[in-house]
Amino acid sequence: MKTKRGLNGCVLKWIAIILMAIDHFGASILENFLLNVWDVSPLGDLLRDYPDYWDLVLMADRVIRKIGRPAFPVFCFFIVEGFCHTRNVKNYAVRLGIFALISEVPFDLAIFGTPFHWGHQNVFFTLFLGLLLIWYLRDVSTSTEWSLAGALAVCCAAEVLHVDYGAFGVALIGVYYILRELPVLQAGAGAILSAWEMPAPLGSLLLLFYNGERGRQPKWFFYWFYPVHLFLYYVIGTWVLPAWI
């Protein structure tokens, strides 16, 4: 079979997780273990002894966080792809829900330095709510009014639960689903909706290169990568770097 031009799903997911890992390096190592707790963190000695490093680390963090922004729209897009192609939506939702729970402690440790931080939930919860939204739109809603009411309810739930990216993140999944048959409009609308997190729109525009092929990809790798890499950042920030520095 001849391979289509463009990027398959596996390549796009790899791009997204690499960008995400870069982003979380800034959020975890540079922010949680250095910039935000420089006065109590073992790594804070670096800034106390060398004040000029503060501006350098702060600039590096800002650049790194910007690099990671385009990852989220790609993950949202593949929630829609997974929903449209899965044989069992219920099992798909259960998987996302389970990994949301599995990932919460590693997320809180890496980003906030505590095993339980109720003020912010990991992105798997956002993806889970987004899946519930488009499942409702396809299989439950019977009118535009009910669709809007359901979308509003799920977006409000995202805000109440303080999930990553909040209502905008859930709405982005809904937009990608509604415009799934119009790829150019889908990418454009996604870019506009994600413009509050520059340069996140680049992730939406990257979807224009998707060739519709799944590609060869390990089923569980993209699920497990999220909690595992966050926990590794926690280990690095808590024990490895302080011992090294």
From TrEMBL:
<feature type="transmembrane region" description="Helical">
    <location>
        <begin position="67"/>
        <end position="85"/>
    </location>
</feature>
<keyword id="KW-0812">Transmembrane</keyword>
<dbReference type="InterPro" id="IPR008875">
    <property type="entry name" value="TraX"/>
</dbReference>
<feature type="transmembrane region" description="Helical">
    <location>
        <begin position="185"/>
        <end position="209"/>
    </location>
</feature>
<feature type="transmembrane region" description="Helical">
    <location>
        <begin position="92"/>
        <end position="112"/>
    </location>
</feature>
<feature type="transmembrane region" description="Helical">
    <location>
        <begin position="149"/>
        <end position="179"/>
    </location>
</feature>
<feature type="transmembrane region" description="Helical">
    <location>
        <begin position="12"/>
        <end position="30"/>
    </location>
</feature>
<protein>
    <submittedName>
        <fullName>TraX family protein</fullName>
    </submittedName>
</protein>
<feature type="transmembrane region" description="Helical">
    <location>
        <begin position="118"/>
        <end position="137"/>
    </location>
</feature>
<feature type="transmembrane region" description="Helical">
    <location>
        <begin position="221"/>
        <end position="241"/>
    </location>
</feature>
<keyword id="KW-1133">Transmembrane helix</keyword>
<keyword id="KW-0472">Membrane</keyword>
<dbReference type="Pfam" id="PF05857">
    <property type="entry name" value="TraX"/>
</dbReference>
